[in-house]
Amino acid sequence: MSEAAPVHWRLAPDHEFVLNRCRVIGILNITADSFSDGGLYSDLDRAIGRTVAMLDEGAAMIDIGGESTRPGAEPVEAAEQVRRVVPVIEAIRRRFDVPISIDTTSAVVADAALDAGATAINDVSAGEDDPDMVPLAARRNCGLVLMHRRSRPAEDSWSDQYDEAPVYDDVVQDVRSRLLERAALAIDAGVDPSSIVLDPGLGFGKTVAQNARLIAAAASFVNTGYPILCGASRKSFIGAVTGQANPGDRVAGSVTIALWQAARGVRLFRVHDVSAHVAALSTFDRGHRGVRALGASWRAWIDSTVETG
Prior knowledge:
The protein has helices spanning about 45-55, 80-95, 105-115, 135-140, 170-190, 210-215, 220, 235-240, 250-265, 275-309, and strands spanning about 10, 15-20, 25-30, 60-65, 100-105, 120-125, 145, 195-200, 230, 270. By secondary structure, the protein is α/β, with parallel strands linked by helices.
């Protein structure tokens, strides 16, 4: 991959997600046990109401999942995931022309979601749980998010509650290398390189300190040439720093991390609190463009002064 920053994420042969500015992906969990909003949107009407609210707040995409990936969560059968998510995806697709990603590690669920109108697969196992997932993404010509994790949710712990810290030689290089390996495997299987997004997996198999290192090294991931997704929203490592036990109170910390990542080239943000992130990241985008324009005008002035001086 080129070192140049990507300008789009290809979701379908005729649909590209332009990444010349920050894009907020709204989280919609159709689950009973997600760490922050479990049980809130299991009813179809509430799920659609939440979707409408997130779109009104500026979400550019909706990420829908029927299985919690919080530490300690038990797996959900594919048939049950399909029962939960497909009616919601179909209802959204009937009303809105908005990109939808399906958050699942099951190719059966992903296939059903794509049939219902989803445009991308968000796989927290980077295609490792189900060997059919990457070939499915290649066959369906859809967007694919590959996330890094160390273990399945049922075997994981909250970032501040590990009895023994997950072992890495170097957490940044290890995560980066593993994601590049999974991306190469996907390309070998026929996935278009421009369809791939990488997610370092903040909160998945990392201590508070290891998460901090990954956040600080955002530019290292951006420099892979793939679009990078930030998934910090409301996570336990934020609470460990701010002292906020309630995930719903971690909005400011979540936004702060998103802005830090944006300043280093990250352009995709999967979040619970859409309005707060859109407001902050839109302001960043305007300021970033303004700074670049100001820089260009100063350079032009300096060049003309040198030439005429």
